[in-house]
Amino acid sequence: DAGITQSPRHKVTETGTPVTLRCHQTENHRYMYWYRQDPGHGLRLIHYSYGVKDTDKGEVSDGYSVSRSKTEDFLLTLESATSSQTSVYFCAIRDRANTEAFFGQGTRLTVV
Amino acid sequence: DQQVKQNSPSLSVQEGRISILNCDYTNSMFDYFLWYKKYPAEGPTFLISISSIKDKNEDGRFTVFLNKSAKHLSLHIVPSQPGDSAVYFCAASDSGGGADGLTFGKGTHLIIQP
Prior knowledge:
The complex is a heterodimer. By secondary structure, chain A is mostly beta strands. Chain A is 0% helix and 58% strand. By secondary structure, chain B is mainly β. In chain B, 35% of the residues are buried. Chains A and B meet through strand 4, strand 5, strand 9 and strand 10 of A and strand 4, strand 5, strand 9 and strand 10 of B.
């Protein structure tokens, strides 16, 4: 299995609070991604990173920010959580284009 | 606007028979295609991929076919086994986009019946 760990695995938070999800990899892969999975929508890209301090927006980036200060860590922050951000969040890593991406186990986030 | 479409939300197949999962795409820049399998409460796991320079790739019981002119790919599982029951996602990427990541379909829930 690819060395990719997400934390926490489960979190319940209140509307309006900030939340940070962490993705940690031990594979030294260049590319890292955050996706969210919702019923009827499949997996949608939130943000991605192509190197330390190099990040860009994905399809559903509103309300989210990311940071990558080290190769191995990619953080996803919800500045002020809303109920629409209740979802399962997956981190993925990829070595280069035209290869497979490896996914973490996911974080189930509930905003009440 | 969905660039990767899986039009069958679910598919039921008898154990031992062939499962065929279909996927269509609209973005002609996509040149690398993948299938992922996902069990509940787990992350997606990579199954098989195909580059646009090929029209078929086989790995054990799994074969992916690509029809570029129709912008269509399919995953064949032969023979189907109970452990194949899962949600299958089709994904695509554009190598020219570099880090842009994979674009996923909404998934097909495959149910293998004994």
